[in-house]
Amino acid sequence: MATYLYHTVLGHERNWKMEHAYLGPEYSSEEIRSYLDQNGIVYREFDEDGMLDATVQAMVDQKTIGWFQGRMEFGPRALGARSIIADARNPENKSVVNLKIKFRESFRPFAPSVLEEKCSEWFELDVPSPYMLLVADVREGKRTIPSVTHVDQSARIQTVDPHTNPRYYQLIKRFDEKTGCPVIINTSFNVRGEPIVCTPHEAYLCFMRTNMDVLVMDRFVLYKPDQKPLQEDVDWRTLFALD
Q: Which residue among 23, 50, 93, 107 is buried most deeply as judged by most CB within 10 Å?
């Protein structure tokens, strides 16, 4: 679903078609590898299929994952470029991500990312919602995704298609093939009060400062048990005011 932006120039109305919101900075594989190597960070490098399979398996194993891919989103929502992702079927993941990663109240639900072609099977919504702005009820027969369902059985939905974010789409598609569920948790890659991460360094700091289990940057996968503890001279929780 495209968004049209209108602007009047010299008395003439023109419109531009907005295809997606991935308009921010991007870091190449070489830049990410250089950052990791220069800082002695332990990682595992995969090809595309291996990275997707490793990430899906981590979600199935109930791990919480920092997902850092491509150009950063522009706007108010994380849309699968700078996101924290997890299995939406597990009711405990809502509390885990809230309390141990976002450092906020445990009751706050997360938004679902769903394959666009399967959205109407799971939600009472028959139009795309690529910018996570539309709210609809979870269908009665599909209420097996408690971590993205509000108390009134609604959800704020992001539909994902294979053209605007193909890597994120393939990730969810493989998760669906493995579990029968085309829906995952998607929340912004930050903690409460902080801006969303932009750079590999910011992503690594957020990963290490929280109880996140896995960090996936491009094709590089970092597992928390492999990492050395951070050595910091400042209490990072005092750097930003809580929202």
A: 93
